[in-house]
Amino acid sequence: xKADAEDKQERNGRRRRSALDINDPVPVAxxxxxxxxxxxxxxxxxxxxxxxxxxxxxRPVLLPAVSAFVVTMMLGPLSSRAEKAxxxxxxxxxxxWLLVIAAFYGLITLLASPALDWIxxxxxxxxxxxxxxxxxxxxxxxxxxxxxALLPATGKEGVGVDIANFVQPVVAIxxxxxxxxxxxxxxxxxxxxxxxxxxxxxxGFFSVREAKLRTLKIMNDIEHNLTGYLSMVTVINIFVGIxxxxxxxxxxxxxxxxxxxxxxxxxxxxxxxxxxxEVALFLVGLVTFPTLTHALIAPLLYLGFTTLEGHFIxxxxxxxxxxxxxxxxxxxxxxxxxxWGPVGAFLxxxxxxxxxxxxxxxxxxxxxxxxx
Length: 372
Known about the structure:
By secondary structure, the protein is mostly helical. It has 15 helices and no strands. Helices cover about 80% and strands about 0% of the residues.
């Protein structure tokens, strides 16, 4: 015992000589709870990362299936009205399915012919763009000299524009695979056909009456908000498409109808759609018109119209009910475009609406009580 006491005293002495001067240390309160919270946050973070990776890997199947689900939810009120009117479910499903096919086929038909024509003119377009952008020879030459000063020369002289380098990636991204198109239309038909049954099974999945009622309210509100959003945005986009076609016709651009359809479709993508439209108008204007100034007229007119539409027309028509936080919309657009490409950009706002509706029901915000 005496030897043990001496050893302990010696160790304490060494610890006092080597440690810093600490005055009355007190353990942190709630340390176990902090570690427990950190472990839970880490588990949630790992689950989110795994979920994102799974959605990325399952994109060929998940993307058309989710697209079909979103379209089904948008068409839900029409199915409900047809069911209340006594129309057979299979007749309603076939009619709505054919309507979606007709819209899809119409858009492809109107855009395919001008796109194929411009792709066939690829070499000529590249030469014309190089000729029209000769005003940039000075800055490009300076950048070329700077690159040669910093990096070894690669043996390539001049700056060339190969239209195939732009067309091939766009075609590879925009044109969906035949398998994904088949999955989309097949899933859409069966979802439209079994919409009522799917709703009953989702509600019946829960045993508590409160959970059943909450699930039903979430689905009804999602359908209502998605239909309202789609209706309002479609009406606005029709006028945007008419304006795009009119601008193309007034300025002498080729294929005004194709420009109207392209403006209608791209305006479903917030922010990026208008930018893509302006870039396309500028590039085609470079080939069509003799001067750079003339090529800028159509993009500037479209920029002015979209600015007016985005800041005044759309807020006045849509109102505050369907107005979303611009930052939230932008981040949703960035995330889904990064994850699922151009189709994800079209789905960004509908998926955001679905998520916000679900969160509003699951975690309702308490209204502050005002003093009497």
